[in-house]
# Entry
Amino acid sequence: MAKVVTPRGPVALEAARPAPVQSRVIALELHAPAGPGNSDFCYTPQMGNRLWLYGIDVWVYCGEHPSVVGGFFYLMFGSGIPRSGDFMATQWSNIVPLHCGLKPGFRWFACDEFHRHFSMAKLFTTNELRFGVTIENGFPKAWECTVAFEIS
# Structure
């Protein structure tokens, strides 16, 4: 489920008539089902053809404590509507250049709640731009995460 957390200002930069542009945050909530290899994916609505990505925040919620959870994250961008998490992870482009295995993602594990911030300040110019996330569970326990994209 994708939802706009703070709708404010225009999404795309206006080249013909520059004006102050305020940022907004779009958050995606995902649930990794219990069991290794289970996955979930989510993507943002179409956001235009030209925008800045200022940062990405990833929060993971483990449930009861103490517990160990982990898996793979794929932070991607592309156009069109992805059919599956595997399609997104292999056909879309990687936002964060971290690779682990055949697909462009990163592996992590945590014993408690986990937060990671990526400072980007990167301009994207693509038709029908969307951001997306695919997660894969690597442990028997289910977990949830929220990924927030700060854009302008």
In short: The longest strand covers residues 50-61. Residues 1-18 have pLDDT under 50 and may be disordered. Residues 54 and 121 are 4 Å apart (CA to CA). The chain has one domain: 30-144.
